[in-house]
Hints:
Keywords: Membrane, Transmembrane, Transmembrane helix. By secondary structure, this protein is mostly helical.
Amino acid sequence: MHEYNSGYDDGYYAGKNASRSEKQIADATKATFSLAGYITIILLGILTTCVIFSGSLMVAHLFLKAIGMYRNSGTWEYILWLLGLGYLVTCLLFYIKGIMIIGKVNGNWWWIPLFLLCLFVICIMPTLVFQSMLEYWLGPSKRTGEGGIKFYIVFSWVIAILIGFFIYQRYKLTQDYGWFIAKWAYQLGIKTAKSISNQDTNT
């Protein structure tokens, strides 16, 4: 009888421990998937932000490359310079946009060149760069001429144009709108344009 009870207890506790282990494994798996989900969301957020700011970052990169910062600085130092200068370029674009909006409202013709300048930096330049990158990734190997997908040029242009349209929608170039991080520059552009308009009216 004692042996039966001992075997019963052993089986009971073994089953209980197995259930506990299964629960721990399930919890660990759930936590792993949750962490992977959070990391994926963060990476997508960073990627989307880089795409939206791509025009400013490209201008910043070209400037840093022109003055030799690209070669003469470390990786993290260059990234900090790139982000800082990219922010200033973004603020400059919103400053120009503020001037442009007032010119558009007042019916001045010069708002159009300002619009085209902003459009080129914000939308057209990134679209062309993304198209070139996509064509390289989707097309055949430059060395062997093999691989790639059919109609890769068409796909690269379609995807790049969609990305460009996505970026354009975020800036709302023809609307009275400024991002929070560049609101001060946008408002300064509006004040500058109004000041110039008042001077022209007084003269």
